[in-house]
Protein backbone atom coordinates (compact mmCIF):
# COMPACT_ATOMS: atom_id res chain seq x y z
CA UNK A 1 0.00 0.00 0.00
CA UNK A 2 1.38 3.44 -0.95
CA UNK A 3 1.72 6.26 1.54
CA UNK A 4 -1.18 8.10 -0.14
CA UNK A 5 -3.37 5.01 0.00
CA UNK A 6 -2.48 4.50 3.64
CA UNK A 7 -3.74 8.02 4.42
CA UNK A 8 -7.25 7.00 3.46
CA UNK A 9 -7.21 3.42 4.74
CA UNK A 10 -9.40 2.67 7.77
CA UNK A 11 -7.91 2.06 11.22
CA UNK A 12 -6.74 -1.53 11.68
CA UNK A 13 -7.99 -3.90 14.39
CA UNK A 14 -7.08 -7.55 13.84
CA UNK A 15 -8.47 -8.51 17.25
CA UNK A 16 -12.04 -7.37 16.54
CA UNK A 17 -14.52 -10.22 17.11
CA UNK A 18 -17.78 -8.25 17.13
CA UNK A 19 -18.24 -5.43 14.66
CA UNK A 20 -17.66 -2.02 16.23
CA UNK A 21 -18.61 0.53 13.59
CA UNK A 22 -17.53 3.45 15.76
CA UNK A 23 -13.92 2.20 15.62
CA UNK A 24 -13.54 3.13 11.95
CA UNK A 25 -13.20 6.88 12.37
CA UNK A 26 -10.37 8.89 10.96
CA UNK A 27 -9.54 12.48 10.08
CA UNK A 28 -7.27 13.12 7.10
CA UNK A 29 -5.69 16.59 6.58
CA UNK A 30 -5.88 17.53 2.90
CA UNK A 31 -6.67 20.60 0.82
CA UNK A 32 -9.89 21.65 -0.85
CA UNK A 33 -10.98 24.13 -3.51
CA UNK A 34 -13.45 26.62 -2.03
CA UNK A 35 -15.93 27.54 -4.78
CA UNK A 36 -17.00 31.17 -4.45
CA UNK A 37 -20.13 30.96 -6.63
CA UNK A 38 -22.52 27.97 -6.69
CA UNK A 39 -22.90 28.31 -10.46
CA UNK A 40 -19.19 27.52 -10.87
CA UNK A 41 -19.24 24.17 -9.03
CA UNK A 42 -19.86 21.99 -12.07
CA UNK A 43 -17.41 23.89 -14.28
CA UNK A 44 -14.65 23.85 -11.64
CA UNK A 45 -15.11 20.16 -10.96
CA UNK A 46 -14.79 19.33 -14.65
CA UNK A 47 -11.68 21.48 -15.03
CA UNK A 48 -10.09 20.06 -11.89
CA UNK A 49 -10.81 16.55 -13.11
CA UNK A 50 -9.26 17.40 -16.48
CA UNK A 51 -6.12 18.79 -14.78
CA UNK A 52 -5.96 15.67 -12.54
CA UNK A 53 -6.30 17.61 -9.31
CA UNK A 54 -9.02 15.39 -7.85
CA UNK A 55 -8.25 12.38 -5.62
CA UNK A 56 -7.65 9.26 -7.70
CA UNK A 57 -8.43 6.98 -4.77
CA UNK A 58 -11.81 5.39 -4.32
CA UNK A 59 -13.22 7.22 -1.31
CA UNK A 60 -16.41 5.18 -1.54
CA UNK A 61 -19.25 7.27 -0.15
CA UNK A 62 -16.99 10.21 0.70
CA UNK A 63 -18.21 12.57 -2.02
CA UNK A 64 -15.78 15.03 -3.57
CA UNK A 65 -18.15 17.99 -3.24
CA UNK A 66 -18.55 18.90 0.43
CA UNK A 67 -20.08 21.73 2.49
CA UNK A 68 -17.64 24.54 3.13
CA UNK A 69 -15.81 24.01 6.46
CA UNK A 70 -16.66 27.60 7.38
CA UNK A 71 -20.04 27.35 9.15
CA UNK A 72 -21.27 30.73 7.87
CA UNK A 73 -20.46 29.86 4.28
CA UNK A 74 -21.96 26.37 4.68
CA UNK A 75 -25.25 27.82 5.98
CA UNK A 76 -25.56 29.91 2.83
CA UNK A 77 -24.88 26.90 0.59
CA UNK A 78 -21.14 27.30 0.20
CA UNK A 79 -19.32 24.26 -1.23
CA UNK A 80 -15.78 23.05 -1.68
CA UNK A 81 -14.21 20.31 -3.78
CA UNK A 82 -11.68 17.92 -2.26
CA UNK A 83 -8.24 17.91 -3.88
CA UNK A 84 -5.69 15.13 -4.08
CA UNK A 85 -3.36 14.79 -1.05
CA UNK A 86 -0.28 15.95 -2.97
CA UNK A 87 -1.75 19.46 -3.27
CA UNK A 88 -0.82 21.70 -0.34
CA UNK A 89 -2.93 24.78 0.27
CA UNK A 90 0.10 26.84 1.28
CA UNK A 91 2.52 25.67 -1.44
CA UNK A 92 1.60 26.89 -4.92
CA UNK A 93 4.37 24.77 -6.44
CA UNK A 94 2.17 21.72 -5.75
CA UNK A 95 -0.68 23.19 -7.77
CA UNK A 96 -1.29 22.27 -11.40
CA UNK A 97 -1.52 25.01 -14.05
CA UNK A 98 -5.26 24.37 -14.25
CA UNK A 99 -5.73 24.87 -10.51
CA UNK A 100 -3.59 28.04 -10.59
CA UNK A 101 -5.70 29.44 -13.43
CA UNK A 102 -8.96 28.80 -11.59
CA UNK A 103 -7.55 30.38 -8.45
CA UNK A 104 -6.17 33.46 -10.23
CA UNK A 105 -9.45 33.96 -12.10
CA UNK A 106 -11.32 34.21 -8.79
CA UNK A 107 -13.39 31.06 -9.28
CA UNK A 108 -11.96 29.33 -6.23
CA UNK A 109 -9.53 29.47 -3.38
CA UNK A 110 -7.35 26.67 -2.00
CA UNK A 111 -7.90 26.03 1.70
CA UNK A 112 -6.93 23.41 4.30
CA UNK A 113 -9.58 20.78 4.88
CA UNK A 114 -10.02 18.10 7.54
CA UNK A 115 -11.65 15.09 5.84
CA UNK A 116 -13.62 13.08 8.38
CA UNK A 117 -14.03 9.41 7.48
CA UNK A 118 -16.12 6.82 9.29
CA UNK A 119 -17.51 3.32 8.75
CA UNK A 120 -19.88 4.53 6.03
CA UNK A 121 -16.95 5.96 4.04
CA UNK A 122 -15.29 2.60 3.47
CA UNK A 123 -16.05 -0.31 1.18
CA UNK A 124 -16.52 -3.92 2.22
CA UNK A 125 -12.97 -4.70 1.04
CA UNK A 126 -11.57 -1.77 3.04
CA UNK A 127 -13.15 -3.03 6.26
CA UNK A 128 -12.14 -6.64 5.60
CA UNK A 129 -8.50 -5.59 5.11
CA UNK A 130 -8.66 -3.73 8.41
CA UNK A 131 -10.09 -6.69 10.33
CA UNK A 132 -8.47 -9.75 8.74
CA UNK A 133 -4.75 -10.36 8.41
CA UNK A 134 -3.81 -10.06 4.72
CA UNK A 135 -2.33 -13.05 2.91
CA UNK A 136 0.42 -13.33 0.34
CA UNK A 137 -1.92 -15.44 -1.82
CA UNK A 138 -3.96 -13.54 -4.45
CA UNK A 139 -7.74 -13.17 -4.07
CA UNK A 140 -7.58 -14.49 -0.55
CA UNK A 141 -10.07 -12.17 1.10
CA UNK A 142 -13.67 -13.47 1.00
CA UNK A 143 -15.01 -10.81 -1.36
CA UNK A 144 -17.16 -12.97 -3.64
CA UNK A 145 -20.69 -14.08 -2.91
CA UNK A 146 -23.75 -15.21 -4.83
CA UNK A 147 -27.03 -13.40 -4.33
CA UNK A 148 -30.59 -14.61 -4.76
CA UNK A 149 -33.05 -11.86 -3.98
CA UNK A 150 -32.29 -10.58 -0.50
CA UNK A 151 -30.11 -13.62 0.37
CA UNK A 152 -26.33 -13.52 0.01
CA UNK A 153 -24.66 -16.92 -0.16
CA UNK A 154 -21.06 -17.28 1.01
CA UNK A 155 -18.64 -20.16 0.50
CA UNK A 156 -16.04 -19.43 3.17
CA UNK A 157 -12.69 -21.13 3.37
CA UNK A 158 -11.87 -22.70 6.71
CA UNK A 159 -9.36 -19.97 7.63
CA UNK A 160 -12.17 -17.39 7.57
CA UNK A 161 -14.72 -19.31 9.62
CA UNK A 162 -13.64 -17.62 12.91
CA UNK A 163 -14.59 -14.30 11.27
CA UNK A 164 -17.80 -15.52 9.60
CA UNK A 165 -20.27 -13.37 11.56
CA UNK A 166 -18.12 -10.26 11.15
CA UNK A 167 -17.82 -10.90 7.43
CA UNK A 168 -21.56 -11.44 7.06
CA UNK A 169 -22.48 -8.29 8.99
CA UNK A 170 -20.15 -6.06 6.99
CA UNK A 171 -21.32 -7.64 3.73
CA UNK A 172 -24.95 -6.87 4.62
CA UNK A 173 -24.04 -3.32 5.67
CA UNK A 174 -22.32 -2.61 2.38
CA UNK A 175 -24.98 -4.20 0.15
CA UNK A 176 -28.33 -2.52 0.82
CA UNK A 177 -30.35 -5.21 -0.97
CA UNK A 178 -28.98 -7.99 1.26
CA UNK A 179 -30.96 -8.85 4.40
CA UNK A 180 -29.88 -12.44 5.04
CA UNK A 181 -26.37 -13.88 4.74
CA UNK A 182 -25.85 -17.65 4.75
CA UNK A 183 -22.87 -19.97 4.61
CA UNK A 184 -23.05 -23.26 2.70
CA UNK A 185 -22.20 -26.27 4.87
CA UNK A 186 -21.83 -28.94 2.15
CA UNK A 187 -21.28 -29.31 -1.57
CA UNK A 188 -24.29 -28.75 -3.82
CA UNK A 189 -25.59 -32.15 -4.82
CA UNK A 190 -23.36 -34.02 -2.37
CA UNK A 191 -26.23 -34.79 -0.01
CA UNK A 192 -29.11 -35.25 -2.47
CA UNK A 193 -30.01 -35.32 -6.13
CA UNK A 194 -31.87 -32.02 -5.99
CA UNK A 195 -28.72 -29.86 -5.66
CA UNK A 196 -29.95 -28.29 -2.43
CA UNK A 197 -27.57 -27.78 0.49
CA UNK A 198 -27.43 -27.40 4.23
CA UNK A 199 -26.70 -23.86 5.37
CA UNK A 200 -26.04 -21.69 8.39
CA UNK A 201 -27.52 -18.22 8.81
CA UNK A 202 -24.73 -15.77 9.63
CA UNK A 203 -26.69 -12.54 9.55
CA UNK A 204 -30.33 -11.49 9.42
CA UNK A 205 -33.53 -13.54 9.49
CA UNK A 206 -33.73 -17.15 8.34
CA UNK A 207 -35.96 -16.08 5.48
CA UNK A 208 -35.22 -18.00 2.28
CA UNK A 209 -38.36 -16.99 0.36
CA UNK A 210 -36.92 -14.82 -2.39
CA UNK A 211 -38.18 -13.01 -5.45
CA UNK A 212 -35.85 -11.93 -8.23
CA UNK A 213 -35.85 -10.84 -11.83
CA UNK A 214 -33.75 -12.27 -14.64
CA UNK A 215 -34.10 -11.51 -18.36
CA UNK A 216 -37.34 -9.67 -17.68
CA UNK A 217 -38.84 -12.72 -15.95
CA UNK A 218 -39.89 -12.92 -12.30
CA UNK A 219 -39.04 -15.94 -10.17
CA UNK A 220 -40.29 -16.51 -6.61
CA UNK A 221 -39.09 -19.53 -4.66
CA UNK A 222 -37.65 -20.90 -1.42
CA UNK A 223 -33.89 -20.80 -1.95
CA UNK A 224 -33.38 -23.62 0.59
CA UNK A 225 -35.54 -26.09 -1.37
CA UNK A 226 -34.41 -25.64 -4.99
CA UNK A 227 -31.25 -25.04 -6.99
CA UNK A 228 -30.57 -21.49 -8.15
CA UNK A 229 -27.26 -19.89 -9.13
CA UNK A 230 -27.38 -16.19 -9.96
CA UNK A 231 -23.84 -16.42 -11.33
CA UNK A 232 -25.26 -18.34 -14.28
CA UNK A 233 -27.42 -15.42 -15.45
CA UNK A 234 -25.00 -14.70 -18.31
CA UNK A 235 -25.23 -18.32 -19.45
CA UNK A 236 -29.02 -18.32 -19.21
CA UNK A 237 -29.06 -15.18 -21.37
CA UNK A 238 -26.54 -16.58 -23.86
CA UNK A 239 -28.77 -19.57 -24.55
CA UNK A 240 -32.15 -17.81 -24.48
CA UNK A 241 -31.10 -14.87 -26.63
CA UNK A 242 -28.26 -16.20 -28.72
CA UNK A 243 -28.97 -19.90 -29.28
CA UNK A 244 -32.73 -20.45 -29.13
CA UNK A 245 -34.87 -19.05 -31.95
CA UNK A 246 -38.53 -18.10 -31.80
CA UNK A 247 -40.63 -21.10 -32.78
CA UNK A 248 -38.00 -23.66 -31.77
CA UNK A 249 -39.02 -26.68 -29.72
CA UNK A 250 -36.71 -27.09 -26.71
CA UNK A 251 -36.35 -29.98 -24.28
CA UNK A 252 -35.02 -28.71 -20.93
CA UNK A 253 -34.21 -31.96 -19.15
CA UNK A 254 -33.08 -30.49 -15.80
CA UNK A 255 -35.05 -27.24 -15.88
CA UNK A 256 -34.96 -26.31 -12.21
CA UNK A 257 -37.41 -23.46 -11.68
CA UNK A 258 -37.07 -22.37 -15.30
CA UNK A 259 -34.13 -19.94 -15.86
CA UNK A 260 -33.72 -21.33 -19.40
CA UNK A 261 -37.32 -22.38 -20.04
CA UNK A 262 -39.27 -19.30 -18.97
CA UNK A 263 -37.21 -16.71 -20.93
CA UNK A 264 -37.37 -19.09 -23.92
CA UNK A 265 -41.15 -19.16 -23.53
CA UNK A 266 -41.17 -15.35 -23.53
CA UNK A 267 -39.35 -15.63 -26.85
CA UNK A 268 -42.19 -17.84 -28.14
CA UNK A 269 -40.18 -21.06 -28.08
CA UNK A 270 -42.10 -24.26 -27.32
CA UNK A 271 -40.48 -25.73 -24.21
CA UNK A 272 -40.84 -29.07 -22.48
CA UNK A 273 -39.40 -28.24 -19.05
CA UNK A 274 -38.68 -31.03 -16.56
CA UNK A 275 -37.19 -31.35 -13.10
CA UNK A 276 -37.01 -34.27 -10.68
CA UNK A 277 -37.35 -32.07 -7.58
CA UNK A 278 -41.05 -31.67 -6.66
CA UNK A 279 -40.34 -28.23 -5.18
CA UNK A 280 -38.61 -27.10 -8.36
CA UNK A 281 -41.59 -28.39 -10.32
CA UNK A 282 -43.95 -26.36 -8.13
CA UNK A 283 -41.96 -23.15 -8.46
CA UNK A 284 -41.51 -23.77 -12.19
CA UNK A 285 -45.30 -23.84 -12.49
CA UNK A 286 -45.47 -20.60 -10.50
CA UNK A 287 -42.94 -18.99 -12.87
CA UNK A 288 -44.91 -20.15 -15.92
CA UNK A 289 -48.06 -18.58 -14.46
CA UNK A 290 -46.45 -15.35 -13.21
CA UNK A 291 -44.67 -14.72 -16.50
CA UNK A 292 -47.67 -15.75 -18.62
CA UNK A 293 -45.85 -18.29 -20.79
CA UNK A 294 -48.32 -21.13 -20.35
CA UNK A 295 -49.02 -21.23 -24.09
CA UNK A 296 -45.38 -22.13 -24.73
CA UNK A 297 -43.94 -23.89 -21.66
CA UNK A 298 -45.13 -27.28 -20.39
CA UNK A 299 -43.85 -28.55 -17.04
CA UNK A 300 -42.96 -32.10 -16.02
CA UNK A 301 -41.77 -33.78 -12.82
CA UNK A 302 -40.03 -36.88 -14.19
CA UNK A 303 -36.68 -38.63 -14.06
CA UNK A 304 -34.45 -37.00 -16.66
CA UNK A 305 -33.20 -40.28 -18.12
CA UNK A 306 -36.73 -41.33 -19.07
CA UNK A 307 -37.85 -37.82 -19.94
CA UNK A 308 -35.44 -37.50 -22.88
CA UNK A 309 -37.25 -40.34 -24.65
CA UNK A 310 -40.83 -39.73 -23.48
CA UNK A 311 -40.70 -36.02 -24.34
CA UNK A 312 -39.27 -36.84 -27.76
CA UNK A 313 -42.04 -39.35 -28.47
CA UNK A 314 -44.73 -36.99 -27.17
CA UNK A 315 -43.54 -34.11 -29.36
CA UNK A 316 -43.38 -36.33 -32.45
CA UNK A 317 -47.07 -37.13 -31.99
CA UNK A 318 -48.15 -33.59 -31.14
CA UNK A 319 -50.36 -31.32 -33.21
CA UNK A 320 -50.19 -28.09 -31.26
CA UNK A 321 -50.27 -24.48 -32.36
CA UNK A 322 -50.62 -21.00 -30.86
CA UNK A 323 -52.53 -18.13 -32.45
CA UNK A 324 -50.78 -14.76 -32.02
CA UNK A 325 -53.60 -12.31 -31.49
CA UNK A 326 -53.44 -8.51 -31.96
CA UNK A 327 -53.40 -6.45 -28.79
CA UNK A 328 -56.78 -4.70 -28.90
CA UNK A 329 -59.19 -3.49 -26.24
CA UNK A 330 -62.92 -3.97 -26.92
CA UNK A 331 -65.19 -0.92 -26.51
CA UNK A 332 -66.53 -0.62 -22.96
CA UNK A 333 -70.17 -0.45 -24.01
CA UNK A 334 -70.10 -3.47 -26.33
CA UNK A 335 -71.41 -6.75 -25.00
CA UNK A 336 -69.38 -9.92 -25.35
CA UNK A 337 -72.03 -11.43 -27.60
CA UNK A 338 -71.60 -8.60 -30.11
CA UNK A 339 -67.79 -8.47 -29.97
CA UNK A 340 -66.27 -8.75 -33.46
CA UNK A 341 -64.28 -11.80 -34.42
CA UNK A 342 -60.59 -10.90 -34.47
CA UNK A 343 -58.30 -12.82 -36.78
CA UNK A 344 -54.88 -13.87 -35.44
CA UNK A 345 -51.86 -11.98 -36.68
CA UNK A 346 -50.17 -15.32 -37.28
CA UNK A 347 -50.17 -18.90 -36.06
CA UNK A 348 -47.12 -20.62 -34.61
CA UNK A 349 -47.12 -24.36 -35.15
CA UNK A 350 -45.13 -26.37 -32.62
CA UNK A 351 -42.41 -28.35 -34.40
CA UNK A 352 -42.48 -32.11 -33.94
CA UNK A 353 -38.70 -32.30 -33.56
CA UNK A 354 -36.76 -30.69 -30.73
CA UNK A 355 -34.22 -28.18 -32.00
CA UNK A 356 -32.33 -28.26 -28.67
CA UNK A 357 -31.90 -30.52 -25.66
CA UNK A 358 -30.51 -28.70 -22.60
CA UNK A 359 -28.98 -30.64 -19.71
CA UNK A 360 -27.77 -28.31 -16.99
CA UNK A 361 -26.66 -30.76 -14.32
CA UNK A 362 -22.89 -30.38 -14.68
CA UNK A 363 -21.95 -32.95 -12.04
CA UNK A 364 -23.66 -35.79 -13.94
CA UNK A 365 -25.48 -34.58 -17.07
CA UNK A 366 -22.93 -36.17 -19.38
CA UNK A 367 -23.99 -39.60 -18.05
CA UNK A 368 -27.50 -38.96 -19.44
CA UNK A 369 -26.18 -39.06 -23.03
CA UNK A 370 -26.79 -42.83 -23.52
CA UNK A 371 -30.52 -42.00 -23.51
CA UNK A 372 -30.02 -40.43 -26.95
CA UNK A 373 -28.82 -43.74 -28.40
CA UNK A 374 -31.63 -45.06 -30.60
CA UNK A 375 -33.76 -41.98 -29.81
CA UNK A 376 -35.62 -42.26 -33.14
CA UNK A 377 -35.20 -45.97 -33.80
CA UNK A 378 -38.51 -47.18 -32.40
CA UNK A 379 -40.97 -44.39 -31.54
CA UNK A 380 -44.52 -45.78 -30.98
CA UNK A 381 -47.05 -44.50 -33.51
CA UNK A 382 -44.53 -42.72 -35.74
CA UNK A 383 -42.78 -44.41 -38.63
CA UNK A 384 -39.06 -44.10 -39.18
CA UNK A 385 -39.68 -42.65 -42.65
CA UNK A 386 -41.86 -39.91 -41.18
CA UNK A 387 -39.22 -39.09 -38.58
CA UNK A 388 -36.53 -38.90 -41.25
CA UNK A 389 -38.76 -36.55 -43.25
CA UNK A 390 -39.18 -34.29 -40.21
CA UNK A 391 -35.44 -34.36 -39.51
CA UNK A 392 -34.82 -33.44 -43.12
CA UNK A 393 -37.03 -30.40 -42.61
CA UNK A 394 -35.84 -29.30 -39.17
CA UNK A 395 -32.39 -30.83 -38.88
CA UNK A 396 -31.04 -33.11 -36.18
CA UNK A 397 -31.24 -31.57 -32.70
CA UNK A 398 -28.40 -29.82 -30.93
CA UNK A 399 -27.47 -31.23 -27.54
CA UNK A 400 -26.15 -28.85 -24.89
CA UNK A 401 -24.64 -30.80 -22.01
CA UNK A 402 -23.05 -29.03 -19.04
CA UNK A 403 -20.07 -30.55 -17.26
CA UNK A 404 -17.08 -29.82 -15.05
CA UNK A 405 -13.43 -30.17 -15.97
CA UNK A 406 -10.06 -28.75 -15.06
CA UNK A 407 -9.02 -25.27 -16.20
CA UNK A 408 -6.24 -23.92 -18.38
CA UNK A 409 -5.53 -20.81 -20.41
CA UNK A 410 -6.64 -22.29 -23.73
CA UNK A 411 -8.99 -25.15 -22.68
CA UNK A 412 -7.43 -27.40 -25.32
CA UNK A 413 -6.84 -30.35 -23.01
CA UNK A 414 -10.25 -29.86 -21.38
CA UNK A 415 -12.03 -29.81 -24.75
CA UNK A 416 -10.38 -33.08 -25.77
CA UNK A 417 -11.21 -34.69 -22.42
CA UNK A 418 -14.88 -33.65 -22.69
CA UNK A 419 -15.10 -34.92 -26.28
CA UNK A 420 -13.57 -38.23 -25.22
CA UNK A 421 -16.19 -38.64 -22.49
CA UNK A 422 -19.05 -37.76 -24.85
CA UNK A 423 -17.70 -40.33 -27.31
CA UNK A 424 -17.53 -42.96 -24.56
CA UNK A 425 -21.12 -42.29 -23.48
CA UNK A 426 -22.53 -42.34 -27.03
CA UNK A 427 -20.14 -44.98 -28.39
CA UNK A 428 -19.62 -42.64 -31.32
CA UNK A 429 -16.53 -40.55 -32.04
CA UNK A 430 -16.92 -36.87 -31.19
CA UNK A 431 -13.72 -34.81 -31.52
CA UNK A 432 -12.79 -31.13 -31.24
CA UNK A 433 -12.87 -31.12 -35.05
CA UNK A 434 -16.45 -32.46 -35.27
CA UNK A 435 -18.58 -29.96 -37.27
CA UNK A 436 -20.71 -27.69 -35.05
CA UNK A 437 -18.98 -28.97 -31.90
CA UNK A 438 -18.45 -26.12 -29.42
CA UNK A 439 -17.11 -26.50 -25.90
CA UNK A 440 -18.02 -23.20 -24.27
CA UNK A 441 -16.25 -21.93 -21.15
CA UNK A 442 -19.11 -20.99 -18.81
CA UNK A 443 -17.37 -19.99 -15.57
CA UNK A 444 -14.76 -20.89 -12.98
CA UNK A 445 -16.23 -22.69 -9.98
CA UNK A 446 -13.04 -23.37 -7.97
CA UNK A 447 -9.30 -22.66 -8.25
CA UNK A 448 -8.79 -25.77 -10.38
CA UNK A 449 -12.31 -26.39 -11.65
CA UNK A 450 -14.29 -24.92 -14.53
CA UNK A 451 -17.83 -25.34 -15.82
CA UNK A 452 -18.32 -25.96 -19.56
CA UNK A 453 -21.21 -26.37 -21.97
CA UNK A 454 -20.51 -28.88 -24.74
CA UNK A 455 -22.82 -28.34 -27.72
CA UNK A 456 -22.98 -30.76 -30.64
CA UNK A 457 -25.50 -32.02 -33.15
CA UNK A 458 -26.92 -35.49 -32.46
CA UNK A 459 -25.25 -37.85 -34.94
CA UNK A 460 -27.60 -39.76 -37.23
CA UNK A 461 -25.76 -42.99 -36.42
CA UNK A 462 -26.57 -42.50 -32.72
CA UNK A 463 -30.16 -41.35 -33.25
CA UNK A 464 -31.20 -44.44 -35.27
CA UNK A 465 -28.99 -47.08 -33.70
CA UNK A 466 -30.93 -50.20 -32.78
CA UNK A 467 -31.05 -50.83 -29.03
From TrEMBL:
The protein's role, per its UniProt record: Specifically methylates the N1 position of guanosine-37 in various cytoplasmic and mitochondrial tRNAs. Methylation is not dependent on the nature of the nucleoside 5' of the target nucleoside. This is the first step in the biosynthesis of wybutosine (yW), a modified base adjacent to the anticodon of tRNAs and required for accurate decoding.
Record flagged with keyword Cytoplasm: yes
Name of the protein described by the UniProt record: tRNA (guanine(37)-N1)-methyltransferase
SAM-dependent methyltransferase TRM5/TYW2-type domain mapped to chain residues: 145-460
Enzyme Commission (EC) number: 2.1.1.228
Catalytic activities: guanosine(37) in tRNA + S-adenosyl-L-methionine = N(1)-methylguanosine(37) in tRNA + S-adenosyl-L-homocysteine + H(+)
Origin species: Polyplosphaeria fusca
Molecular-function annotations in GO: tRNA (guanine(37)-N1)-methyltransferase activity
Subcellular location, record wording: Mitochondrion matrix; Nucleus; Cytoplasm
Keyword entries, A-Z: Cytoplasm, Methyltransferase, Mitochondrion, Nucleus, S-adenosyl-L-methionine, Transferase, tRNA processing
Binding-site residues for S-adenosyl-L-methionine, renumbered to this chain: 236, 275-276, 303-304, 360
Principal location listed in the UniProt entry: mitochondrion
Subunit (UniProt): Monomer.
Amino acid sequence: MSATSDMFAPPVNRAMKVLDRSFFQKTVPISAARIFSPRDISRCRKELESSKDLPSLNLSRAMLVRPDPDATRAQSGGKCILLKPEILHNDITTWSPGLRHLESSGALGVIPYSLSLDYSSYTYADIMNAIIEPSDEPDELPTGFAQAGHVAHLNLRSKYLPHKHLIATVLADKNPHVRTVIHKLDDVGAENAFRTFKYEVLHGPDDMAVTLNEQGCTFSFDFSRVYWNSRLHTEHERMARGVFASGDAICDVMAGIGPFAVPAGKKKCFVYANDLNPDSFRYLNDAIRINKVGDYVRSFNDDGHAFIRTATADLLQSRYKVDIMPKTKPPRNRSKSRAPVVAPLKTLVQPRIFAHYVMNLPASAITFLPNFVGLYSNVPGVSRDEIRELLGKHGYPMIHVYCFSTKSDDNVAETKEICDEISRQLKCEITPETPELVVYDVRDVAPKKRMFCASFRLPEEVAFREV
